Amino acid sequence: MKKLFTIAILGLLSTGAFAQTSQGTKVVSGDLSLSISTYDQKVYNPVIDRTSFYRTNGTAFRFAPGIGYFIKDNLRVGAYIGYGLNNYKYITRDQSTSSSKAKEREHIYQIGASIVKYYMLTDKFAFTTTGGIGFENRESKANNNPESSFKKNSETLALHAGLTPGLVFFPSEKVSAGMGFGFLGYRSEKNTNYYETSTHENSTSSIGLDLRSSTWVVNFSYHFNR
Questions:
Q1: Is the keyword Signal assigned to this protein (predicted)?
Q2: Are 92 and 50 in contact (CB under 8 A)?
Q3: Which residue, among 12, 119, 27, 4, has the nearest Cα to 73 in the 3D structure?
C-alpha cells in the first residue's frame, strides 16, 4: 500500500509540469525587468587643451502583461503589450571642476508577438527559447539646469525581432516562474529630436547579441485548461 501511494505521489509530481505545457493549455503572464546603470566617458579636446568628463546614471523599469496558448505540447504562441519608464541623469565636468547637469525621462509603449519552445530538463525545470517580434514607441523629455534654456523632446519608433533564451521553474500545477536573459537578433530605430530652434532625425539598425541588464526579464505565468 505504501509503495502504491508513493508511486501515485511521484506520478502527480512528474505530470504537473507537462500538463502545464500540453496542447490546449492557456496562459496569462507578466514580464518584469528593472536595471540600474552608470556610464562614464572622458573626452580630450586638443584645440583648447581641455578634458571633459561625462557620466550617465540610468534606471529602467518595464512591465509587459501577455496571453498565450499551447498549439502543441511544449510549444506556445502569444501576444503582449508593455510599458516602460527610463530615468537618466547626465553630469558633465571639465578640468576646472565646473559642472552641468541634465535630466531625461522616457516613456516606452510596446506591443508584440512571441513563440516559445520548452525543453524539459526535469519534471520541474525547463529551458526555453523565445522568438519574437515587437514594435515600440518611446517619448522623452530632457531639461538642463533651471537657469538654462536648453530643452529637448524626442520620439523613437523601433522594431525588433530575435531570440531570447530562458529558464522556467514549475512550483505548482498552474504556476510557473522564469527568467529570460539576453537578446540575439535585429533592431531598427528611427529617432527624432525636437530642440527649441531645430529638429534632428537619425536612423540606426543593428544585428547581434545584447547582454545588457535591461534585457534580463523575470516572468510569472498562470496556466489553465478551461
A1: yes
A2: no
A3: 119
pLDDT, tens digit (0-9, with 9 covering 90-100), for 124-144: 999 999 999 999 999 998 776
In which band, very low, low, confident or very high, does the pLDDT at 98 lie, cut at 50, 70 and 90? low
**Strand 50-72 relative to strand 175-180, pairing:** unpaired
Q: Write the CA distances from 191 to 25, 86, 109, 133, integer angstroms.
A: 40, 16, 15, 19
Cα–Cα distance list, 164 to 38, 179, 226 (Å)? 24, 10, 29
Topology of domain 2-224, CATH: Porin (2.40.160)
Domain range annotation of the chain: 2-224
Please give the biggest Cα pair distance in the chain.
89
Provide DSSP, 48-109.
TTEEEEEEEEEEEEEEEEEEEEEEETTEEEEEEEEEEEEEEEEEEEETT--EEEEEEEEEEE
